[in-house]
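User: I've been trying to design a sequence by hand for this structure and keep getting stuck. Would you show me what you'd pick, starting by listing the structure so we're on the same page?

Assistant: Good idea, let's start from the same input. This is the structure you sent:
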């Protein structure tokens, strides 16, 4: 299938590693010009070098921290300079610290709300006028399977990412008539550094070994294994594609069947 992404301009947030980097690679492999954003200049530079060596799409990078107040304006300027405009926006953020609902203080909520919700919404709003004018756009927001089934000891993530669900559905209906789609991609247990960190935190909290935590989690996944970043990224690339033009306002789970809800 031709995804129709040759020459499309894509901004991928939090793409120095993990799921964001996977989506950036997938889009570039389809011929897109991707702009990677993250907090590690060294990793971003190496990632772009590897993507450009493939000779299909093209990659540039810019340093950016979603926690910074000037993130939106700085990123807008970088998109204009590096891409000349935008067709695809992939909203991706790092995860908050683990913890229970009782441990969610006002300060923690405010800090992570700024980087995980507010910046996502304001950045999207900043690029919508251009997408409307050109009559084409793709907005993909990565969240977590925790918005379907809250994950133990991830109360902050469950709470804040769920806020994006209502926002995505609302804005999808508002911009569909302009040829813009808005979808959410929900990872289950995809093997990334983040999963290793969470398993380590759960091991410390429960007094079990990381191996015991990992083994128990695999038993809850019908596929019997962790997902691969490439599998998650392929689903993201499709939602950003031309053939997916009639798919909007949806949430796609990539979780190996782990979610028991319909």
């Amino acid at each position: 299938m031709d995804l129709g992404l040759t020459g499309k301009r894509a901004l991928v947030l939090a793409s120095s590693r993990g799921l964001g980097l996977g989506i950036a690679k997938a889009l570039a492999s389809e011929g897109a010009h991707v702009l990677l954003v993250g907090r590690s200049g060294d990793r971003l530079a190496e990632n772009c070098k590897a993507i450009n060596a493939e000779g299909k799409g093209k990659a540039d990078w810019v340093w950016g921290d979603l926690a910074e107040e000037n993130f939106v304006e700085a990123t807008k300027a970088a998109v204009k300079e590096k891409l000349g405009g935008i067709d695809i926006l992939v909203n991706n953020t790092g995860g908050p610290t683990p913890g229970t609902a009782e441990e969610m203080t006002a300060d923690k909520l405010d800090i992570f709300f700024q980087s995980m919700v507010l910046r996502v919404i304001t950045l999207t709003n900043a690029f919508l006028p251009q997408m409307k004018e050109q009559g084409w756009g793709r907005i993909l927001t990565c969240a977590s399977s925790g918005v379907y089934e809250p994950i133990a000891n991830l109360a902050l993530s469950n709470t804040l990412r769920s806020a994006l669900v209502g926002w995505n559905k609302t804005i999808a209906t508002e911009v569909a008539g302009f040829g813009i789609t808005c979808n959410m991609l929900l990872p289950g247990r995809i093997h990334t550094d983040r999963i290793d960190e969470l398993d380590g935190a759960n091991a410390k909290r429960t007094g079990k070994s990381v191996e015991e935590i990992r083994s128990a989690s695999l038993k809850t996944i019908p596929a019997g294994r962790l997902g691969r970043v490439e599998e998650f990224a392929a689903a993201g690339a499709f939602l950003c594609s031309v053939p997916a033009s009639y798919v909007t306002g949806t949430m796609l789970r990539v979780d190996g069947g782990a979610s028991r809800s319909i």
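That's my pick for every position. To get oriented when you compare it with your attempt: The longest helix spans residues 106-134. The mean pLDDT is 95.
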